[in-house]
Amino acid sequence: MKRLDTPEKNWKFSASDVRERKFWGDYMRAYEEAIRATASKQAPWFVVPADKKWFTRLVVAAAIVEAVEQLDLTYPSVGAEKKKELATMRAALVRET
C-alpha cells in the first residue's frame, strides 16, 4: 500500500504484484524446498530479512565475521632462510638512512 499511497514509491508498483500475490504460498514453499535441498554444512544458506536495510546489513556482516573466524586463519610462517634475507635487507636499509 505504501507504493500506492506514496508518490515517491509509485514507480515501484506493478500491477503484476497484485496478480502474483495469490501465489505467495507457492513461492515460499518453493524457496524453502530449494534451500533445504541445497544447503549443506560446507555451503550453508543464510535467510536474511530484508525489511530494514540496517538490520539486513548487520545480519550479513555478522555471518561473514563468523565464517571468517571459523576459518582459523594464521599468517604464513617464516623460515630461517627468509629471516636471514630479511635481516640482510634491514641492515641495507639502515645503512641508507
Give structural notes:
The protein is an all-alpha fold and about 100 residues long. The chain has two domains: about 1-40, no CATH class; about 45-95, no CATH class. It has five helices and no strands. The N and C termini lie far apart (about 70 Å).
Strand content: under 5%
- What would you call the structural class? mainly alpha
Rg result: 27 Å
Overall morphology: elongated
Low-confidence stretches: none
Main beta sheet strand tally, sense and closure: none
- From the N-terminal CA to the C-terminal CA, the straight-line distance is 70 Å
What share of residues is helical? 55-70%
Helical run tally: 5
Compressed to H and E, one letter per element, the order equals: HHHHH
What's the average pLDDT? 93
**Overall number of structural domains:** 2
Q: What's the count of strands?
A: 0
Topology of this protein?
Elements lengths: L1 H4 L9 H6 L3 H15 L14 H18 L9 H17 L1
Any descriptors?
single chain, 2 domains, elongated, 0% strand, 97 residues
Summarize the structure.
The protein has 97 residues and is mostly helical.
